[in-house]
Amino acid sequence: MSITHQNMKGWVLDACSLIDRGHSRCIRLSRDPKARFGYRFKRQCFRITKSYYGANSSSADAGSNSDTMPKLRCKPPKKRKRKNGELNQGEIDSRTYHQKIRSVILEGAESLVDAVKAHGHLNGAADEAEEPLPNQECPLAALCNMAKELFQLENADGEDRVQFISAEDSCPSHLDLFSRITENNSDLAMEVTLMGEQYVIPPHTAFLLSDFSRIQPLVHSGKRFDLIVMDPPWENKSLKRSGRYSSLPSSQLKYLPIPLLASLNCLVVTWVTNRPSHQRFVRDELYPHWGVEVLAEWFWVKVTRTGEFVYPLDSQHKKPYEVLILGRFRCSAEDSQSSPAKSVAPVEDQRVIVSLPSALHSHKPSLSEVLMPYVGAEAKCLELFARSLQPGWTSWGNEVLKFQHTSYFTATPTDEPADTPSGETAGRRPEAVVISAGEPPPPLSPTDG
Q1: Which residues have C-beta within 8 Å of that of residue 288, sequence separation ≥ 6?
Q2: Which pLDDT score is estimated for 147?
Q3: Which residues contact 334 (CB under 8 A, 6 or more apart)?
Q4: Sequence-distant contacts of 90-94: CB under 8 A, at least 24 apart
Q5: Taking Cα atoms as reference points, which of 408, 411, 415, 430 lies closest to residue 30?
Q6: What per-residue string of b and e applies to 3-39 under the rule 16 or more CB within 10 Å gives b?
Q7: What local confidence, expressed as pLDDT, does residue 150 receive?
Q8: pLDDT 10s digit of each residue in the chain, 449 long?
Q9: For residues 389 and 207, is the Cβ–Cβ distance under 8 A?
Q10: Going by DSSP bridges, is the β-strand pair 393-397/26-28 parallel, antiparallel, or unpaired?
């Protein structure tokens, strides 16, 4: 499992483990479909050995952490002199919020890191030689923008809006990736050539490559989802300066068709920046607009291979954590009576998720194993603004295939029988995929705190 440890504070995740599990059995349609390969996500993408791994780290934040720390340290950095005098309201709100959650972050992270270190994890060991990161340039968003000029079938039936990647189709260049949902419904991952590039598509995975203007095929497919996770491209100054990808005004998020995609009591999970204004918007405007009841606030804490915060906890420049806001989609009482809710675990507040962050920009860890007890093992899952695919999930975004490019993986031949997947197994879910196998997280031991 990708959950290395679990206690009453939260979880420690092995981010690479779950990615690998969905790509461990693969065929290459454009090369030799009889051969079998295993794909592993390149480990250098998670080789965070030192704090302050970003290029924009402030010198004011440096000096409070050593390269190898036995404990999580959080000594406040020296205060920088301000050129313009007093703090603005946004900065005051940020500091107030940080002080409110500081003990939750510190105590939860220390408890989890100490537990996994006792079992030999987060010991600083690197399992492969140092290599450069893959090229992160991605033309998919530009292609989506160009595709707006293409013809789109607005009145097609739901079934006509789904197309399948076939094991018999060596070069599926005919696929309409921009106005139809594309699905791999076999038990094997497939390396395919799409738009002249090679991508690895996990088993039992569906995706739609589009922006807001072409999200309707997702709605018209008729699917209702039990879990919706989204990582919106929030507006911020550093993003505008970098030009890495386009952002989205918060108000535009209200146009996402969540009420048309969510099933009764669907769990909605939103990644939010550390700006209190964004968090207030999700809690007070966005979720109420969709009919989603706010349930909990979780924190993703980013640590190095030695278990220290990637930034000092009290850094004024960047924080070593990000926020998740969880809620349930509530519909009318009439709908509730006609569709009784599933029996799932209640969502606890202020849980901590600890993992190594990816060195790739906006590459969040998969939360599928962590969230399964709260939605059920057979839940239908959707990720919005996705940049990668997950086995058993449907994904949407204008860069939805970005981290599925073969440049992010290492392929190794396997000795599995060279049988070609057929329709007889199309309805089965892959045994190697935890999200669909129904395995709950490991039970808490009496010593788990």
Answers
A1: none
A2: 74
A3: none
A4: 90/275, 90/276, 90/277, 93/276, 93/277, 94/274, 94/275, 94/276
A5: 411
A6: bbbbbebbbbbbbbbbbbbbbbbbbbbeeebeebbbb
A7: 65
A8: 689 999 999 999 998 888 998 899 999 886 777 788 999 999 888 877 776 544 444 434 443 433 333 456 665 555 555 556 688 888 898 999 999 999 999 999 999 999 999 998 888 776 566 678 888 788 888 887 777 666 555 545 555 778 999 877 656 667 888 889 999 999 999 999 888 889 999 999 999 999 888 899 999 998 999 999 999 999 876 555 455 556 788 889 999 999 999 999 999 999 999 999 999 999 999 999 999 999 999 999 999 999 999 999 998 888 999 999 999 998 754 454 455 556 788 999 999 999 999 888 888 999 999 999 999 989 999 999 999 999 999 999 999 999 999 999 999 988 765 554 444 343 343 333 332 333 344 444 433 43
A9: yes
A10: unpaired
How far is the C-alpha of 299 from the C-alpha of 293, rounded, in Å?
19
Q: What are the residues facing 271 on neighbouring strands?
A: 324
* Residue 4 near residue 441 (C-beta atoms within 8 A): no
The whole-angstrom separation of Cα 5 and Cα 3 is: 6
> Token pair 């070593």 is at which residue?
320
Reduce the DSSP state of residue 142 to 3 states and report it.
helix
Q: How far is the C-alpha of 179 from the C-alpha of 144, rounded, in Å?
A: 10
- One-letter identity of residue 278: H
Within 8 A by CB and 6+ apart from 146, the residues are: none
CB 277 within 8 A of CB 93: yes
Written as six digits, the tokens of 256 are: 């996402």
In order of their start, the domains of the chain are: 3-76+91-417 (3.40.50.150)
Structure tokens of 24? 């461990």
Distances (CA, A) of 216 to 180, 397, 398: 10, 12, 14
Token pair of 441, please? 């997280």
Non-local CB neighbours of 353 within 8 Å, separated by 6+ positions: 10, 11, 12, 13, 298, 299, 300, 301, 324, 365, 367, 370
SS3 assignment, position 446: coil
Confirm if 98 and 13 have CB atoms less than 8 A apart.
no
- In one-letter notation, the amino acid at residue 350 is Q
